[in-house]
Amino acid sequence: MSKPTFKPKRLLLVHAHPDDESLFTGHVIAKAVKDGAEVFVLTLTRGERGRMKLEELKGIEGNLAAVGAFREAELKNALAALGATRHQFAGTRAYLDSGFRINAWSRATKPKNLDEMALSAVSTAVISEDIYQVIKEFEPDYLLTYNRRGGFGHPDHKRANEASAMALRRYSKETRGKAPQFWVISEGRERFDVAIGTPETAAIKKAALSAHASQIAVNAETYSIVSGKEIRYDRQERIRRSSIKPWLFLKPIALGLWALPLGILMAFAGTMLHNITASGTDRAPLGLEVALALTASLAIALRLLRESRGALYLMCLTFAATLYWLANGNPDGDVIIANNTNGQIWVYGSLVICALVMVFPRVGPGVWRKRTSSHR
User: Sign of the C-alpha dihedral, residues 2, 256, 267, 279?
Assistant: First the structure.
């Protein structure tokens, strides 16, 4: 099966906030304009809850109307630098930037006290109506927005993806399958179909990002949104074709089910190992140390290999259930894990290891590469 190609003639981009169009799709827009495509940027909010990086603008931070007006002006300049001539904000109602908070799992999520006008507090169907009207008027052949997880998890980004897919489903039904191709931004280690970015588009992206000075720190070769995380302008933007099917969210759940038998196998393997002792020594059983090491390795591997903790949760669920069964035995009273020191260390020690890996805030390849990479 051939890899999808990205060659739009009429490209619609759906973004949640001003500056997202430059941060995530600056290369994409610049190349599309250069190739002669007509580009339409639909922005759902005015970024009213953005944190101001410039000291002279700190005074308006928290004033939603003032911040929104300032960022709207920045967006106009950024779009001029990118060459995108068509733009509008979502029209049915003036949605507000939801903002976000970091939860106990170090994930971005909705604020506890959401404004009723915040984008992530609005029904997906209402937002999709705005997007549908733009699709109907502009008639794009490609629509690009965030992935299902909203990139780093911003609730407004997630809502943009959900509403875009819903609008495309409606449009496809009414046009008998003639909907635009649905493309999303690939994040981190996600699969991607196309990577876009050249020195020429990097220069354009830099100019566009410079227009968003209230939100982005611009340097000679890099830019940053968060202090200490420098990103090069010439880093390519990765995108992939996606599906508008409503049951797409079930796919990652189905893919994660492979972790269920891992927990059972690990529990049996560790149980068989934990009483093995090296001959001629009085030290703790070597098998117990190996069993605990294998448990830790498997748990950490699942955190490293997956973008979420889902597979780890499933493995730990069956792991704990199997240990419970092995330690409590059957109605005849036979048990496989004895109620002695080794058995207790194996059961409780392995469960503590799994719990620590689950709650540890950041475990990923990027953490280990941080000191060896010039930027992330």
Answer: positive
